[in-house]
Amino acid sequence: MRRAGRALALATVVLSVTALTGCGGSAGAEGNGQGSSVTLRVGATGWKGEEALLRFAGLDDTPYEVQWSLFQGGDKQLEAVRAGALDVASSSEIPPVFAAADGKPNFKVVAVQRGNTLNQEVVAPKGSEVTSIAQLKGKKVGYVKNTTAHYFLYELLKRAGLGWDDITAAPLEPDKALAALNGGSVDAFAGYGNSIIAARQQGARTIGSGKGVLSGNFLWTASDDTLGDKAEREALTDLLARLDQANAYVRDGREKEYAKVVATATHQPVDQALEEYSEGQAQRKTEVRPVSARATASQQVVADAFLDLGALKQGLKVSGFWSDRLNAPLRKELAR
Fold this sequence. Notes:
By secondary structure, the protein is an alpha/beta fold. The protein has two domains: about 1-115 and about 215-335, Periplasmic binding protein-like II (D-Maltodextrin-Binding Protein, domain 2, 3-Layer(aba) Sandwich); about 120-210, D-Maltodextrin-Binding Protein, domain 2 (3-Layer(aba) Sandwich). It contains 14 helices and eleven strands. The chain has helices spanning about 1-5, 5-20, 50-55, 75-80, 95-100, 150-160, 175-185, 195-200, 225, 230-250, 255-265, 270-285, 295-310, 325-335, and strands spanning about 40-45, 65-70, 90, 105-115, 120-125, 140-145, 170, 190, 205-210, 215-225, 285-290. A five-stranded mixed sheet has the order 7-6-8-5-9, with helices on both faces. Helix 7 (about 175-185) packs parallel to helix 8. It holds the Pfam family NMT1. Keywords: Signal.
């Protein structure tokens, strides 16, 4: 009955996602839990990396169904969670801050995935005379609003002695920003993931990086409805543990095989995908962890920065949308 009541919201967000990504709203394959009474609708950004990872590790045989939906950013995933069209979102620290800005979040951060912060960059187009963040003064800079790109661009400007008002900030979706960069309508672009890989392949130069700015905390967020359902909580706990196990499986001597999967999805040479994977794991291993006071405090720093920037109209206490409800069962599963 709960899912039936959310059908209209689902249809609305699916149409939105289709327009944004050109991939359709439920752009993922279902899990192998045929006959299960539980279906988790889980978001993915850029490409369905988690789905591919589980399949690669032979851990996609879940006793429940998983519907992976593709989005261009964690911000869109949180919008879908808020609309009742998604059960679980994966994002950086930033999207939940804006999703909770109205003071009425209907979701909770339930786990933290530690990960690398590579391919989080500010790039200038091929042939540009801009070689540093300081040279962006008076320039038009595209960025993905309410995401890591928004945050690390702001922080990099501060470190270069500039303020947000020293640039003409142009909020753009990744695909449109890439076209704007190549077409010359923006002087630089702050983005992440596939859009940065594509930009570099087309000759763009990196002029700033979020590597030393971002915490490496990527958040798993679940709707209040999902947390209130025992079977769904158990399924989510199991899914998170499987993802952690799958990452360990790749690190156990299967990096090159997995790089082939990544290269196919991101349209880059296998050697490049392998190099990026190895560098990323060297910086910080990808691991799922229960929520902690330290991780919560890290997001509070981010929220305070956006308040200083003026992107938030009032202060936000992020601990209000964090929950340790999965901590005990998740620790148990991770220890197996």
